[in-house]
Design goal:
Mean pLDDT: 83
CATH architecture of the largest domain: 3-Layer(aba) Sandwich
Structural class: alpha/beta
Largest sheet: 8 strands, mixed
CATH topology of the largest domain: D-Maltodextrin-Binding Protein, domain 2
Radius of gyration: 24 Å
Strand content: 15-25%
Low-confidence stretches: 258-269
Order of helices and strands: HHHEEHEHEEEHEHEHEHEEHEH
Number of helices: 11
Shape: globular
């Protein structure tokens, strides 16, 4: 029995189709099918019932799945520990929200490369959590705190969000006709936005779960929206606004609310929302010198 076949078994249980499993593992779907058949032959068991394209666990498969998932974790751990942990060369995979990868990390890569030429960074712009247990990433940057208790989690910065509108939109749109672009990908920010909609009767022109789409929509003067300050700063024509008074905010107001996250008392609508940025690692990879170097570098980049 090839113990690596367990990775295909566990993945197929979770993904349910050969195509989705193959995409997850970066292989052809025929490879997944062949590995599963080989595992079933080695165990003399039928692990799945085939229902169309879906693979559903049999009773025998259900009994083995939990144990197989634990064994797979142990195999990944063993492989990590077998690598030369002190090597100052090799690959480090970073999973980060696309906006942070594009707007912050990419600009810092040349300096990192110059200082550590033998460490090759792979930056994955992921919206969803990468599985650190399966080594899909060595380090993850996340704006939501993971729920797994055995991961190493540290807050390295905060991202400030505010309401923004284009200067042209403010100048040419009567304030009673201001409309909202709804950003839906972040529960905390979405709830913040819903408070504004309900308390002040803002019409929603459209919704998006993509921050870049939201940003482009504000740049195209379609309405006002929640944006991170570092992204809005790319376009000097985007101005921070007070969505309650429907006025442009002063730098004094921005600094005051960002510093203490105060709710300027306008029916409990905060003008600036701060969200923690977490760096997340599996405990095993912390032993790697190159991963520690990259983690420290990320802390310095986002902690400025």
């Amino acid at each position: 029995m090839d113990w690596h076949d367990l990775a295909y078994f566990v993945c197929l249980v979770e993904q349910q189709t050969l195509t989705a499993c193959a995409e997850q593992l970066g292989v052809q779907h025929s490879t997944v099918s062949r590995r599963i058949e080989r595992l079933e032959q080695a165990l003399s068991l039928t692990l799945f019932d085939r229902l169309g394209k879906r693979y559903i666990l049999t009773k025998e498969g259900e009994l083995l799945y939990a144990q197989a998932a634990e064994v797979q974790k142990e195999i990944v751990t063993f492989e990590r520990m077998a690598i030369d942990q002190n090597a100052m060369q090799g690959n480090v995979v970073i999973s980060a929200p696309p906006v942070l990868a594009n707007e912050v990390l990419i600009a810092e890569l040349p300096a990192f490369r110059e200082r550590y030429p033998d460490i090759l960074l792979h930056v994955h712009g992921d919206v969803h959590f990468s599985d650190l247990y399966r080594k899909e990433a060595d380090i993850a940057l996340r704006l939501s705190r993971p729920t797994q208790n055995d991961l190493l989690i540290r807050t390295i910065s905060h991202v400030n969000y505010g309401f923004f509108a284009h200067r042209g939109y403010i100048e040419h749109t009567p304030i009673e006709q201001w409309q909202l672009i709804e950003f839906q990908a972040n529960a905390r920010l979405f709830n913040w936005l819903q408070n504004l909609i309900h308390q002040h009767s803002y019409p929603v022109i459209f919704s998006s779960n993509d921050l870049y789409v939201t940003y482009s929509s504000v740049c195209q003067q379609l309405g006002i929206a929640i944006l991170p300050y570092f992204l809005a700063a790319k376009n000097p024509a985007l101005l921070p606004i007070d969505p309650v008074d429907r006025t442009v905010m002063t730098m004094h107001e921005i600094a005051a609310t960002a510093a203490n996250h105060a709710h300027i008392d306008k029916q409990a609508i905060p003008l600036v929302q701060s969200q923690p940025l977490y760096i997340v690692m599996h405990p095993d990879v912390r032993r790697s010198a190159r991963v520690r170097i990259v983690a420290e570098w990320l802390g310095s980049v986002f902690g400025r």
